[in-house]
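Run log, item B.
One chain of 434 residues. Sequence copied directly from the ordering sheet:
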Amino acid sequence: MRKNRNKELYIETKKYLVNGVASSFHKSEVEDIPLYIEYGKGSKLYDVDGKEYIDYVLGLGPMILGHANEKINKAVRKQLNRGTHYSAPTKELGLLSKQATELIPCAEKISFQSTGSEADMYAFRLARAYTGRMKILKFEGHYHGWADEQNINFATDSVEELGPIDKPNKVYSVKGQRHATADDILIAPWNDLNTLENVIKNNRDEIAAIIMEPYMCDEGPIAPKSGYLQGVRKLCDIHNIVLIFDEIITGFRLSFSGAQGLYGVIPDIGLFAKAIGGGFPMAMICGKKEIMDIGVTSSGCFNGNPVASVAGLVVFGELSKPGVYEQFQKLGDTLVSGINNLSKKYNTKIYSCADGAIATIMFGLDRPVNDIRDYIQNADIDKYNKFFVSVKELGVRITYRRGRLFLSTEHTEKDIDKTLEIFDEALFNIQKVD
C-alpha cells in the first residue's frame, strides 16, 4: 500500500466536497489534512495508509461500545433484512421507549428525533408551548446545536468578545447566521448563581426555559460547582421556568442515567443522543408527562428509525451489565494518574480528571476551571493543540482544543498504558521544540 493516501484523497475530495470534509468537526484548523478512515474495530481506528490509532474521539461520543461492535452488528444485520425505514413505529421502538422511562429520572414520556440539534429545537418548542413565554436562557460555552438561535456564545477565543459578565454580548459562530433569531435568547455565565438570579429577575415572567449541559462537556469538560445544579433547579421552581438538561454528550457516559442520575437533580426535560444509538443517528427527548403531552408535533422522516432502535436496545443491554461504569472509572483514573505523573516529570501544568466514560486534559492549569471565561483566560490552549497534533502523529486520536477524551467498553488497560507512553513521547517532543 502506498503511503500519503490521506493527503491524496484530501486533495482530490476538495474538488467536489466543501472543505473536503462533511463536518467542521472532521478537520481542525491546526491539521493540514484530515484522517481518511478505512475501518474501525473496538477501541482502534485504521486510516487509508494502514496506520492504527487508539481512538478517544469515538465518533464525537456515539461509539460507547466501540467500533464495529459485534452485538450491534448482529442486531442491525437482522433488521437490514427486514427493512431499514418504514415511516411507522416498531415494537423495538416501543421497548426502547419503555426502558428509557424506567432508566432516566425525568422521563415520564419520550419523543424521538434523529440528531442532537433537532432534539434541542424540539425542546425549545415544548418549553415555549408549555409556558406561553418565548425567551430561552443559555450559558456561555454550552453547545445546543448549530441552528441559528442555538449556536450562540459557544466557541470564542476572547473574553473581551464575550463582553461584561453580567451582560454578555451575543457571539455568533457561523457565517450566514440570522442574528434576529437570537432575539429571544438570553446569555449568562455558567456556575454563577448570583448572576443567573439577576438575569432572571431582569426578565421576570418572560423566560420559558433554562437550558444547560449539566456537566459542561462540549467546550471543556467543566463540572458544575457543588450545589450549582440544585440552585438552578430551585430558581426554575420559584419562577416557573422549564429546566432543560442537554445530555446529548453526558447521557450514558457520566452514568447509566446521565448527569441527572449522577447528581440527583431532575430537570423537566432531558435530551439524549450520541451514545444511545451506538453509532446510528438517534436522539431522544424525555420529560414530564404534562410538558411532553402539550401538543407539539414531532415531525421528522427518520424519527425512531428501526435500525437505530435495535442498536439502541443493544446499547441499553450492554451498559446495564454489572461493573461497566466501575470499569470506565477505573480506566479513567489510571489515565489521570499517568497524566499527573507526566505533568511532574516534565514540570508542566496539566489538569486532568475522569468522570464515568469522560476524561479531561487541560494544559496550563493545575485545578478545575469554573466556566468558559476561566478556561480561555488561564488554559494553555495552544500547547494543548500542539499536543493534539503530536499524539495523532504517534497513534492516539483525541479531540482538538477541547481536552476531552471518551472511553468505550472496548478500551483496555493495555490501551491506557500505550496511550500514556505516547503522551510521554509527545510531551518530550513539545518540550524539546519549546
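Observations after the first pass:
- The two ends are 35 Å apart (CA to CA).
- The chain has 14 helices and 14 strands.
Flagged for discussion on Thursday.
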